């Protein structure tokens, strides 16, 4: 799914947190968002499926179009937006008392989709296979999701996301709490998933951005208390090897951030 962001300003009450974002995210690609802490990357990411609206006073000016439809138009149900645009958070958050199978089905049941037992079983297997977790858990689907390792829990959360059949997956620092082996498993999974989904990932790990993404956007802020902004977005190889903006080069080379 093509995402087009036009003249987006993001507010918390009267405070302008991120200003003037213009960005196009191509379908079936991985786009990484990098930049120093506090520059608005995660705030921007949450506007792509209206998750920021759970914070009182949060609002957006401008447009976020998915396949040409502005998700902020009046009459657009944010719940429907979030079904189409799933999200994986920084720390694995399976429902600890639910079984692995019930964790996968949680979003489907929340959406009040009625399914036969056989259809549920098929969806659990399909989603766990999609998250590259099936072979590790197929013989213990009744154990709590919290019994899995951190990396497995994160893949379980990805399975829960794709079970709802979204078209876009947003990932906010999905590997920051994981060990290197689990991180590699998630990165390999992202590379597989992009054939079926458009993926946008926020990461502080520039090596990760360079490894997994097709496009990279660099966010920055001029000073504390000033709004964050998109400084530059381009193909990942260009951003890391020959960026157009000095601020991008300084960040990537470690001069600040």
From TrEMBL:
Q: Under the cellular component aspect of Gene Ontology, which terms does the record hold?
A: membrane
The alphabetical list of record keywords is:
ATP-binding, Nucleotide-binding, Translocase, Transport
Q: Which CDD domains match?
A: ABC_PstB_phosphate_transporter
Identify the SUPFAM superfamilies for this entry.
P-loop containing nucleoside triphosphate hydrolases
Q: Write the signal peptide boundaries.
A: none
Q: Which Gene3D superfamilies match?
A: P-loop containing nucleotide triphosphate hydrolases
UniProt keyword annotation of Transport present: yes
GO:BP terms for this protein? phosphate ion transmembrane transport
Q: Which residues form the ABC transporter domain?
A: 3-246
Q: Give coiled-coil spans as residue ranges.
A: none
Is the Transport keyword given for this protein?
yes
- What InterPro entries does the record tag this protein with? AAA+_ATPase, ABC_transporter-like_ATP-bd, ABC_transporter-like_CS, P-loop_NTPase, PstB-like
Any GO molecular function:
phosphate transmembrane transporter activity
Q: Which PANTHER family match?
A: ABC TRANSPORTER I FAMILY MEMBER 17
| NCBIfam families with a match to the protein in the record | 3a0107s01c2
What is this protein identified as? Phosphate ABC transporter ATP-binding protein
């Amino acid at each position: 799914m093509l995402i087009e962001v036009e003249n987006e300003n993001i507010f918390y009450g009267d405070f302008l947190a991120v200003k003037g974002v213009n960005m196009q995210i191509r379908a079936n690609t991985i786009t990484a968002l990098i930049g120093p802490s506090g520059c608005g990357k995660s705030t921007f990411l949450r506007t792509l499926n209206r998750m920021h609206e759970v914070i009182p006073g949060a609002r957006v000016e401008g447009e976020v179009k998915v396949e040409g439809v502005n998700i902020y138009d009046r009459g657009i149900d944010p719940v429907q937006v979030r079904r189409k645009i799933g999200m994986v958070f920084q720390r694995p958050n399976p429902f600890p008392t639910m079984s692995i199978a019930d964790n996968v089905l949680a979003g489907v049941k929340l959406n009040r989709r009625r399914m036969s037992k056989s259809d549920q079983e098929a969806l659990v297997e399909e989603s766990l296979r999609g998250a590259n977790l099936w072979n590790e858990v197929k013989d213990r689907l009744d154990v709590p999701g919290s019994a899995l390792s951190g990396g497995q829990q994160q893949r379980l959360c990805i399975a829960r996301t794709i079970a709802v059949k979204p078209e876009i997956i947003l990932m906010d620092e999905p590997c920051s709490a994981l060990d290197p082996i689990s991180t590699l498993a998630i990165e390999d999974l992202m590379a597989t998933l992009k054939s079926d989904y458009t993926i946008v990932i926020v990461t502080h790990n520039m090596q990760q951005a360079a490894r997994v993404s097709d496009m990279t956007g660099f966010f920055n802020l001029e000073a504390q208390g000033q709004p964050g902004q998109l400084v530059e977005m381009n193909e990942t190889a260009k951003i890391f090897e020959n960026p157009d903006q000095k601020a991008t080069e300084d960040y990537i080379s470690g001069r600040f951030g």
